[in-house]
Write a structure and sequence with these properties.
Largest sheet: 6 strands, parallel
Strand content: 5-15%
Order of helices and strands: EHEHEHEHHHHEHE
Strand order of the largest sheet: 2-1-3-4-5-6
Helix content: 25-40%
Length: 211
């Protein structure tokens, strides 16, 4: 697309080009970097925490000569985007967080994704678990050519997301440092990361709007 640069930071299970990217590309030049360990990427062994992913993302922005793009983050990518915006505010023009991981809300359980089979995973992630989109992204039996990338990506997701409670607590207490105009987009019936986590983002980020 053409227009202002937009960096889209993907979630743990969607690291390829999707219809949403075509829609964004109507008004933006869209960049879709893949986090280390997902898909066919390398470098997971160098990643020990979310801070490492943020530094890697800064390197990507520098390599692409993107000084201050708009940033959209989905789920795990939303956590990365929020950390990037609060640690390096001069590098993010506008911020959109979509069903983002990263906040801490005591007493509100999240969905258990790592132990879920395909059917349960679709129930956690999609409003319509049997829709064509849901079935294509999380099939009951993945095509043989996708099995290796799925397993590698689950390993990467576990590295980053298995026990991040301390990091979530720190991020939640630091959200006031985010200066970029922020839109928080959340599924009202999200069963993986329930709406109170989105409300925590909207409360913590000055001027943020929740839709």
């Amino acid at each position: 697309g053409e227009g202002r640069p937009l960096v889209y930071l993907h979630g743990a299970g969607t690291f390829w080009w999707l219809p949403i990217h075509d829609l964004l590309a109507r008004r933006h030049h869209v960049y879709l970097p893949v986090h280390p360990g997902f898909g066919a990427t390398e470098g997971l062994e160098e990643m020990e925490s979310i801070e490492d992913v943020v530094f890697h993302t800064l390197d990507v922005l520098d390599a692409l000569a993107l000084e201050c793009p708009d940033v959209v983050g989905l789920s795990f990518g939303g956590w990365v985007a929020a950390e990037l915006a609060l640690r390096h505010p001069a590098r993010v023009n506008r911020l959109v967080l979509v069903d983002a991981a990263g906040t801490r809300v005591p007493g509100v359980p999240k969905g258990e994704f790592f132990m879920a089979g395909p059917a349960k995973a679709r129930e956690l992630i999609f409003h319509e678990p049997t829709s064509p989109l849901a079935m294509s992204l999380i099939p009951d039996v993945p095509p043989p050519e996708r099995v290796e990338t799925i397993l590698r990506s689950r390993e990467a997701a576990a590295r980053y997301l298995w026990n991040p409670h301390v990091q979530y607590r720190k991020l939640t207490s630091r959200l006031w440092r985010i200066k970029a105009p922020t839109l928080v987009v959340w599924g009202e019936g999200d069963r993986l990361i329930p709406l109170p986590y989105g409300e925590a983002y909207a409360r913590g980020i000055p001027g943020a709007k929740l839709v």
